[in-house]
Please model this.
Amino acid sequence: MSAPEQLPEIDNGLLRFLTCGSVDDGKSTLIGRLLFDTKTILADTLNAIEKTSAKRGMSAVDLSLLTDGLQAEREQGITIDVAYRYFSTGTRKYIIADAPGHEQYTRNMVTAASTANLAIILVDARKGVLTQTRRHSYLASLVGIPHLLVAVNKMDLVDYDQAVFERIKADYLDFAGKLGIKDVRFIPLSALNGDMIVDRGDKLGWYEGPTLLEILESAPAAHTEQAENFRFPVQYVCRPQDSANPALHDYRGFMGRVESGEVAVGDAVTVLPSGLTSKVKAIELGAVQLPRAIHEQSVTLLLEDEIDISRGDMIVKSAEVVEPVKQIEATVCWLSETPLQPARTYLIRHTTREAKAKVASIAYRVDVNTLAQEPATTLAMNDIARISLKLAQPLVADRYADNRATGAFIIIDESTNNTVGAGMIV
Model:
């Protein structure tokens, strides 16, 4: 008897998504429920959280424990650091980032949002749209997350009332209109009971839209919605030293990650900021020769000509050259408890390149509640502002709206080596 034919696994591409919102909106419980109902929790993990829940005198398993891994988080019942979880279904793989809701941990939320392609913004049905809901929505929009899903949670605590859901939806749409958010969807659910997460349940019959998992399954993956220019920041120049193999003496490989676009053997390329040109002779992934490389692949490029290339240089297609700049306008989220000091010199880290920088001017600071632009001479922790930076060395940068990888940078305090700010080039 022949073996049954196996159906090929469908792959819709990796989806990175973020859960955010105000304190106690149920973000960790939502992720726990999603993992539990998709049966992607290991038996020993489930056993451990069952024991912890029993110690607390709970009759049911506390699913929030799946993401709250720090002892301080479990003691206080809050999320402090970003928790990442990985799971897969029959159609795609996921990376989930559970962001903290407290205002003092907003900087952690910015870190998680920088790589997400979809954000689930939780709203407590009893409380409606709060200040931190607006803050996280603004940040999600600011860092270029293209798809927002507003999940009105704890519907079980308002008797699954459709009027409550519609009122919150109207409030949020009013705020989203001021932000210019284009793609926002709404879903009512109960993370505690599992209504409308994976299964529809029987309490929300008035809602005819898809479940949370169905929305995630159909969401576009990163790099798939628009054509992107090829950007390859050089991380390392590989010159093997092997006296037993003379052929390696002429080997010069440029190692890095394709941040966007794609490249093929034979393509004409330009090295920036020098402007030198050549053609791609070979593309290697370990010991394997590739005909082409695509976004998010880490590869080694070999060029036909011997040209000077160093770490921090950017290899682009010759038809997609961008002009290196020594002054940038950017929207910055200040992450440090130490305020911005305009007279100081900071270090800008952009892809694999670093440059010293000074603040030329602060155009305005944004009030995240009203979106009003306020004058400012310095920035405190969690402030968001439009600033101008003068650079000591040129950067090869795109607008953040065009390319999230080459349009973003971090600001580093040279004296402590701490990351003090995150910026998006406008």
In short: Residues 1-10, 69-80 have pLDDT under 50 and may be disordered.
